[in-house]
Design a protein that fits this description.
The longest helix has 11 residues, at 348-358. By secondary structure, the protein is mainly beta. The protein has two helices and 20 strands. The strands form two sheets. Strands 1, 2, 3, 4, 5, 6, 7, 8, 9, 10 and 11 form an eleven-stranded antiparallel β-sheet that branches. An eight-stranded antiparallel β-barrel has the order 12-13-14-16-17-18-19-20. Residues 1-9 and 200-208 have low confidence and may be disordered. The chain folds into two domains: 36-192, AttH-like domain (AttH-like fold, Beta Barrel); 218-358. InterPro entries: DUF7064, DUF7065. Residues 1-28, 190-220 are annotated as: Disordered.
Length: 362
Amino acid sequence: MVRAVQSGPGAVVTADTPFGPDDDTFHPGPDDNPYWAETTWWSFNVPERRLGGWLHAQFNTNRGTVTWRVYVWDPSGAHPDQVRYYRTENEVPLEDPEPDLRDITVPGGGFSVRMLRPLHDYRIDYADSATDFAVHLQFNAVHPPRRFTPGEPPFMEHTHLDQLGHVTGELLLGGERIAIDCYSVRDRSWAPRGGPAPSAPNKPRSDGGRVRHPGGPRWRQIERERGRGRIQYIFGHAGPDLGFLAFVRVADGDAEGWSPLNHGWLLADGRFERLDKTASVMKNWRDPTTGWSDHMEVRLTDLTGRTLRAEGQAVSHITERGAGATALMRWDFDDRIGWGEDQDIWHPRHFARMRQALQAVR
């Protein structure tokens, strides 16, 4: 049985509810749902190499297993057999009957996470001696972890946190030692994941179809189809004082290609504020060959009225399922340059239809 912590009985959770030290470790599911899962994700980048990296684990705590993956990509290739390093292990049994996420080594040869200061500082280590690969990270948070509005897409059942940190350390890649010194994001969530989709009642759709705002280029209209599981998550930071993070509501976008942002932050002059969901938008342009994000424009307004604009260029990609891709993004904030990601998640059949329309010649 996984050691878990519970919040106080009857507590009402809002976007302003702070996380506590106990949120560094596991949380109990409300029942014995086999799809109850808890994740830990760490990202880093090396701008000079156009290189991005992930360490991610999903603990299926009621099943007593974990699925994890570690990878590094750069412009040399995007598919798992092309990227600089890729390893994933599925449904590995949890060896420790009472694991503690504050000090854990993921079984099956996975990475370790050690909490150094609650909700703030962490050490992450991984090594694969068979391939001469290793990554050693120190994550020092820039701010307390942020919680977003519960019960709104994409957090219908999820408790989710995001946190910007100064990430330093070293990457051993093909025998070469590469210094890491960047600002990037970690996140955590706990909720049911991967189970069968709930059946929807058979009733007329109030929006008149799968597209809320018909019109515009055909590929953009396909992209906006509702009920397809589209998620897009973007962030970029030029340091501890400037940047943004947002979830994109693609299905609510307009015919011109502008999609609203419904969760996230604007960071300017070292101050974080939540986004104004009614005034923050993103427009994406796609590569006509791959269909992946190529460049985008982001217009952000926070709840205090401050504004920020950024232009992003994708400099390298990784695609795990051959559909959408995660891109390492270079962001221009007027006279400063930031780095981050675009996580562009699709159902493969939906992506194939969009790309076919993007590549149409008649």
